[in-house]
Amino acid sequence: MTTAGRVEQAREPQYPAISSDSVTWTPKPAIELSSQRAVRRHNLGVVLRQVVERGPRSRATIALDTGLNKTTVSSLVSELMDLGLLVERGAEARATAGRPGLVVDVAREGAVALGLEINVDYLGVQATDLAGGSRYKAIEAADNRRRGSDVVLDRLADLATEALREVRAQGLRPIGATVALPGLVDVTRGELLAAPNLHWTDVPVVELLRERMGADPLPLGADNEANLAALAELWEGAAVGLSDFMYASGQVGVGGGIVLGGELFRGYRGFGGEFGHTTVEADGLPCACGSHGCLETRGGLEPLLAAAGLDSEQITTTGSGKPVAELVKRAEAGEETALAALADCGRWLGVALGSVVNLLSPQAIVLGGYFAPISQWLKPPIERELSERVLGGAAAVPPVLPSSLGPEAAVRGAAATQLRRVLADPTLVNA
Fold it and tell me: pLDDT tens digits, the chain, 431 residues: what are they?
């Protein structure tokens, strides 16, 4: 770790800054690290991220990529193995002569985090390990508009408790949980300030969930569902490799997450990205938020289904997946009413996205939530509107991409925010 009293720190030009609801980590030069212990934690994170992000590799390869010497890497790997985060998997395949080194890999029985979600028409939970593997998943369709917050949180706590029981039975170590919520969230206090489609205001979700989970000391956090989905797309989905993009989320409402410079943009008060409440008609239809003419009144799931001739009440009894599947079926069959409804929805999305593109000039637009399975019909009218509204010509119009994570994006992002705390400081698994 040290040479003649000098603390060695890994170089890290390949890792961008990582931001989430619970952690902001930026590689720091050695002069900013105040102690050998801090440097040690930093370098443990460097080595762990090498294996998580680049796959199984030998100590020699890690040393070459990080700039740390082999003795330091061996010591760090040993500590990560003692923490239960890495394991040895066998010899490294080599094309050159010489004795192959043993590779280290992410421990399958290591850390796991929970992503929880409360949405208008369902509850969800997913447990994700450090390698990105899903270790447990449950989705429960329910009309949460017709249930009070206490009832919904009771049920979410039950789902979370069952998930924890299952992952612990697999020998995994839960390190935290984050709740994805459909509205304005104070991430510092874990409070849902306003969710117009749920008719909830000032609900201390994290506090109430912690009470319901009893003595379990699991760290808990909360964030807006579209923000978490955007982070998931950035870290492992359609937006990998992009630094600036707009994530548009179709649910019963319409949400949005904005990533700029590789980081989630929250705005001054933390409420940035409320794409669904962009005004598209000055004197338009009333919105659940209390305003008029919001995109949500035209691009939300219920107006889309109604325009397509589908019973929006199906949402309350079966969850949003089944009516969307029926809409896709009708569109594939060429039903004119369904196709017209999809074209109109895409047009309104394009109107709102035109303002976003002119304001932010993102590299891409990612369509998530229920927009993803219908993206092939939404994309042409969106692109037509963008071509007419965006300044700078065709070159200024960003590509429109479907989410690669689908309806799991928010819960995966929620779990990932907790896992990234451990990637920044692996010693937190013992906290």
Answer: 444 444 566 654 343 333 334 443 444 444 444 588 888 899 999 999 999 989 999 999 999 999 999 999 999 999 999 999 999 987 665 545 555 568 999 988 889 999 999 999 899 999 999 988 999 999 998 889 889 999 999 999 999 999 999 999 999 999 999 999 999 999 999 999 999 989 999 999 999 999 999 877 789 999 999 999 999 999 999 999 999 999 999 988 899 999 999 999 998 888 888 898 999 998 899 988 889 999 999 999 899 999 999 876 654 444 445 789 999 999 999 999 999 999 999 999 999 999 999 999 999 999 999 999 999 999 999 999 999 999 988 899 999 999 999 889 999 999 999 999 999 999 998 76
Q: What span, in angstroms and rounded, lies between the C-alpha atoms of 162 and 169?
A: 11
Query: Could you tell me where the beta strands, DSSP code E, fall in 146-244?
Result: 173-181, 184-186, 191-195, 200-203, 220-224
Q: What residues form DSSP beta bridges with 246?
A: 258, 365
Where are the chain's structural domains? 2-106, 111-228+410-430, 240-404
Q: How far apart are the first and last CA of the chain?
A: 23
- Return the closest-CA partner of residue 111 out of 224, 218, 243: 218
Task: Indicate the angle between helix axes 409-424 and 225-236, nearest 10 degrees.
Answer: 70
Backbone angles phi, psi at 145, to 5 degrees: -70, -20
Q: Which class is 111-228+410-430 in CATH?
A: alpha beta
CATH code for the domain defined by 2-106 = 1.10.10.10
The CA distance from 95 to 98, in Å, is 9
pTM: 0.85
Query: Structure tokens of 160?
Result: 């979370």
The reply to whether domains 2-106 and 111-228+410-430 share a CATH topology is no
Task: List alpha helices for 83-148, DSSP H.
Answer: none
CA separation for the pair 2, 177 (Å, rounded): 36
| Helix, strand or coil, per DSSP, at residue 154 | helix
Tokens matching residue 184: 């304005």
d(C-alpha 203, C-alpha 233), whole Å: 28
- CATH class, range 240-404: alpha beta
SS3 237: coil
Q: Concatenated DSSP letters for 266-332?
A: --TTS-TT-GGG-BS-TT--B-TTS-BSBTHHHHSHHHHHHHTT--TTHHHHH-THHHHHHHHHHHH
